[in-house]
Amino acid sequence: MPFPDAPTLGDTAIPVSRLGLGLAALGRPGYINLGHADDLGGQYEVEAMQQRAFAVLDAALARGVRYFDAARSYGRAEEFLSAWLRERSLSSEDVTVGSKWGYTYTANWQTQAEQHEVKEHSLATFERQWPQTRALLQPWLRLYMVHSVTPDSPALHDERLQQRLLALRETGIAVGLSVSGARQAETLERALQVRVDGQELFQVVQATWNLLDPSAGAALQQAGARGWGVIIKEAVANGLLTIRGLEAASPVLRQVSVRLGVTPDALAIAGALAQPFVDVVLSGATGEAQLHSNLEALSVTLDEETLQELGSLQERPEEYWRRRAQLPWT
Question: Taking a C-beta distance cutoff of 8 angstroms, is the pair 264, 245 a contact?
Fold first, then answer.
């Protein structure tokens, strides 16, 4: 089931789909999406969660999703994805997989933990995690990213680590980074300047862009203009821009949603898809109904007047990320 005429990630020639599926909420029992515990219904056993992941992956594939995104810190996400790819006998011509390194999952399959994941962007962490990802996800893996880079990350200045990442790139795996926090734009601007042996190191960026925090937009536009692939995560703001978040949201979200006859999540994702620098927007669905609602964004066209109206939802980045940090793991 190869996907002809697929969009690509920037200049990498990696085929993707406009909507991808991220497995952050499917690979572990605890996550910060609103209503995550309700979605799982107390079914936290590994087998039950794998079956749920398989069902969502099947539904995504049936609806044309061809890009799947995981990370070492997403609990068993890489393991679930690997098992599904093998059981469904999918080839690297059928789907594209990206994953991330730099965080270690530490919650021990619990919804409550002192720390759910520990960040370390060291060369030693890369050398430990890359073989783990490779063993599970080759030959589907086309992209490996440094997870949640911030301005102080060694990925931006550690020459030994950068040389190792360049060596990975030379094997045919695209090298990227995801960014997070109120200083996303600053981080990306620094990453755009990183060169190893005279060439840009990074080829892809995954960033948070949503109607509440579009502050990375200018830097993402610059990355896209340089040929980088651009993947958007958290387009529904961990549930704040879904029906579950409407009570605390601006009335504008409800008004536009009703006027266009679409769900708030589809509207939010359509807003991200409308940005000219975007290659892929990730759905973080935990169930098939959420996924299908997210996918309705592909049928939504937003004119300039509506986009300006939705622009009134924007918050100060510091306020948005402060609120996000207070979301409970459930």
Answer: yes
| pLDDT(314) > 50 | yes
What distance in Å separates the CA atoms of residue 160 and residue 190, rounded to the nearest whole number?
Answer: 18
Distance CA 227, CA 190 (A): 16
Is the pLDDT at 275 greater than 90, yes or no? Answer: yes
Distance CA(80)–CA(142), nearest Å, equals: 18
pTM of the entire structure?
0.97
Contact present, 219 and 184 (Cβ < 8 Å):
yes
Alpha helix locations (H) across the chain?
36-40, 46-62, 77-87, 123-137, 159-169, 184-191, 217-225, 251-260, 264-273, 288-295, 304-310, 317-325
19-317 folds as TIM Barrel (3.20.20)
**In this structure, which amino acid lies at residue 35?**
G
pLDDT for the residue 1? 46
* CA proximity to 117, closest of 143, 148, 141: 148
User: Quick one: CA dihedral 204, 208, 211, 215, positive or negative?
Assistant: negative
